[in-house]
Amino acid sequence: MPDYSGAPAVFLGAITAKGFISTAESVYSAGDGWRVYILKGGPGSGKSTLLGRAAAAPYASGARAFRVPCASDPHSLDAIILPGHRIMLADGTAPHVLEPKHVGMCENLINVGDCWDSEALRNSAPGIMAAMGRNAAQHERAARYIAAAGALLADNYRLALEATDSAKVVKFATALAGRELSGAAPGEGKEMRCFLSAVTPLGPLFFEDTIYQLCPKVYALEDEYGAVARMALATLRAKCLERKLDIITCLCPLFGEEKVDHILIPSLGVAFCTSNRRHPVRAALRRVHARRFTDAQAMHAHKQRLSFNRRAAGDLLSGASDILREAKASHDELEQYYTAAMDFAKADELADKLLARVSAQIEN
Fold this sequence. Notes:
Radius of gyration: 22 Å
Structural class: alpha/beta
Mean pLDDT: 93
Distance between the termini: 36 Å
Number of strands: 15
Number of helices: 9
Strand order of the largest sheet: 8-12-13-14-11-15
């Protein structure tokens, strides 16, 4: 697994049961003075290398920055976020397309494509098109596997929900919010949305350390089926936003916007997290088990169905990772075509100018 111990790591995009979801636009707002540099160019054109250089800069160390790996290739970076300086550098090409809404005022387009030989790429068109076709088909197939796994786990969620005392969950979450959030100084009520876990070519990845880097006080909701945690986190999220707290809402990599897995409140150093076999939270101040709110007899009646769904979903997610490895091989082939057509001296000059610009803005 790549080493992202130098700064908190999150995903801003993931293939979910609803298809590819990007949350990049939740990171910044033009009205808040953000500067966003959107890198446009093909695979192998140096975008991730440029982002790697930014990540290695002194201003991108520690919890002052976020590194954003690519879920399709965790060794590659999709973005670097510097919240304290309100700066983001991001790959804006497919599938994580980031289009400017306030170009020039907020977003700036950096065209890495100015550094390649278009005629060389035109001559390689048959190979490029074939690799692109394979890559797209492989991603579509992986998405179908993830959607199928999501359907099975959604069935388990519905069974668990029927056995859950909803009023008791909401009462617990409301009391927890009262203890942990009362008296907290309000922020701007900003919500950054991201993923802490994703299905990747390396298998399922969970950036657990990001939780501890930002929030030393962790509440872990132990919930294999998601009904209790989903309801509790929805209540806690609403309470946070009512109090105008700035939060990081971490979505489920299977259900995207439909389900929240974790809520981080860096200003308070408090996190509310879902812990299960897909993303176990190892260190917690307090653990709350879903069985406190669940009718055990009702769940036992569905024991075989729950077990089958869980095992089959695990097999499908493992299969999705295998297919994503094939997709990465196709992407690597694409990179070879673009790398061969690149003028990297020119690309390095472009990167030097951009990083000097960012450094100057930070110093000022």
